[in-house]
Amino acid sequence: MRARAAEILVPLAVLAAFLGTWEYAAAAGWLRPIRFPPPSRLAGSFVDLAFHGFPEGITIWVHAAITVQRILAGHALALALAIPLGLLIGSHALLDRMTAPVVAFCRSVATLSLLPLALVWFGTGEGAKIFLIGYGCFWVMLSATIAAVKLVDPVLIRAARTMDTGGWAIFLRVVLPATLPRLLSGARIALGVGFMVIVGAEMIGTIRGLGSLIMEARTFYRTDITMVGMLCIGAFGLAAMAALEWLEARLVPWQARAEAQTR
Amino acid sequence: MTRLERHAGTIGVVAFLLLWETAARLGWRNPAIMPAPSEAALAALTTIPPGVLAAHVATSLGRVLAGFALGAAAGVALGIAAGWYRPVALVCRPVVEILRPIPPLAWIPVAIVWFGLGEPSKIFVIFLGTFFPVFTAAARGMASIPPVILRAARSMDVDGLRLLAKVAVPAAMPDIATGLRIGFGLGFGVLVAAELIAAERGMGHLVMEARQLGQLGISVFGIFLIGIVNLVADHQLAAAIRRTVGRWHRF
User: Fold this and answer.
1) Is residue B88 domain-shared with residue B123, that is, in the same domain?
2) Looking at the structure, do residues B55 and B26 belong to the same domain, yes or no?
3) Which one of B113, B114, B144, B145 makes the best mutation probe of the A interface by having the most chain A beta carbons within 10 Å?
4) Residue of A nearest to B3 (CA)
5) Quick one: B53 and B103 in the same domain?
6) Contact with chain A for residue B196, Cβ under 8 A
7) How many CB pairs under 8 A join A and B?
8) Do the domain assignments include residue A32?
9) In this structure, is residue A22 part of a structural domain?
């Protein structure tokens, strides 16, 4: 019991000490507040952002809602395309061999380098942002799906065959459930990629969204707002990850147990 | 393995390029919107002297290597320390766990405020992209060393720093290696974004500048270049890891 309390208290104390030192250093004039706005100022900026917004009228909730909406749209689109395609490629060895180099290459193209193409194709509106997020998520999800199908234990499929289960039934009742855990963890990694890409995607051609908030704030030398925006993106990313992990534990409880055992 | 299977990868790549080429030529016809691969390569190679192209690649690689080296060194050192010495973990963890979920790109504005528009701000952002995955992987690798190994070493009177250097760190190497590769990939992705926003050179700048000049073909060429350089660099890193860590572990 005592050890558990220490586990929680020590990190809190460390954080308090960290923030305290920062606050003191700013108050004593060692850190210039324009570069390192003290924590008290950040708290004030957060309240300001929550009620008045920046730029005037667009509160942090609006920014966050737009960012989350863009990520979810791109993520959903990527999953809808990548899962069927991945299942198809993964279950045909020749197709897999043929597409492997293309998939590897497209994955290693930095998503944000497509920004110029996205702007030409979709303009500066929502389309370009959703395309970029979709691209980043798509290749991650596609490789995860292909790997998931290839890693299905062949014994399971043979066992099902001996019980006279036919093609579609094997796919629906054996392959799909067996791939589900990997598909879910692929979806989680893809969402993480979405959160990475969104910041870059929102840096151009918009004043709404957390990514544009932090860039806008910099041009007005409001480092405090930039920092609040960064922390918000981090918090939302963490929350989204936790939600998907919770979903994973609910949907495929056997996987979580198996992982715990191998650890 | 039949002949078809052996060359399947090559066939796939050729088919992909041909498909794109025909789609671009028949479908849109407007190279300003969707240049064909041949047009892209031609546009880039005829308008940009090879020396300039090489300079772009070299600049980008220099940045990513500097940021990666710093991030990997800090991540490995701190991660090992945090995984081995409990007090270090108690101090490092809370701060790292709060900063880790912030996407590296979100640091760009702050990096500019702290370091200005020059090289240090870009290297700093790449450093962050590399540091967090490497730190997490190293700490996790240290934490998941089978206790049997450590007990066996202790029973043979290996202790203290020698235990750390000769037994624990090699045992954690596979995790550290994975972290390094993830960190490199992230650092590379971050580099391009950093170069899109403010740079006079580098592959990201090449891609962005070409768009502003309306030469989408060069943009497409630049995107290909980024993909190829990333792929080659990742292969080199993987080979280096196999040469060093591969002595103890199979991957």
Assistant:
1) yes
2) no
3) B113
4) A94
5) yes
6) yes
7) 161
8) no
9) no
Predicted TM-score (pTM) of the model is: 0.87
Please check whether residues B200 and B100 belong to one and the same domain: yes
Residue A64 lies in a domain: yes
Report d(CA A145, CA A193) in Å as an integer. 16
* B89 plus B201 within the same structural domain: yes
Please judge whether B211 and A116 are an interchain contact, meaning their C-beta atoms are less than 8 angstroms apart.
yes
Q: How much helix, strand and coil, in percent to the nearest 5, is found in chain B?
A: 85, 0, 15
Asked whether residue A46 is assigned to any structural domain, the reply reads no
- Cβ contact, residue pair A114, B192, below 8 Å: no
B11 shares its domain with B104: no
B29 Ramachandran zone, left/alpha/beta (phi>0; psi -120 to 50): left
**What ipTM goes with this model?**
0.85
Distance from CA of A6 to the nearest CA of B (A): 10
**What is the number of structural domains in chain B?**
2
What's the number of domains chain A is made of?
A: 1
Task: Tell me which chain A residue has its CA closest to the CA of residue B5.
Answer: A94
pLDDT tens string B205-235: 888 888 888 788 888 999 999 999 999 999 9
For residue A256, name the pLDDT band (cuts at 50, 70, 90). Answer: low
The answer to whether the Cβ–Cβ distance between B12 and A101 falls below 8 Å is: yes
Which residue is closest to A231 within chain B, CA to CA? Answer: B102
**Cβ of B109 and A218 within 8 Å?**
yes
| CB of A131 closer than 8 Å to CB of A71 | no
Q: Which residues of B touch A263 (CB under 8 A)?
A: 144
Which domain, by its residues, includes B165?
A: 37-247
Read off the CATH number of the domain in which A131 is found: 1.10.3720.10
List, for residues A168-219, the tens digit of each pLDDT value: 888 888 888 888 888 998 999 999 999 989 988 888 777 888 888 988 888 8
B10 chain-A contacts, CB cut-off 8 A: 101
Give B-chain residues touching A99 at CB under 8 angstroms.
Answer: 12
- Is residue B51 located within the same domain as residue B118? yes
Question: Which residues from chain B sit within 8 angstroms of residue A198, using beta carbons?
Answer: 103
Residue B121 and residue B44 share a domain: yes
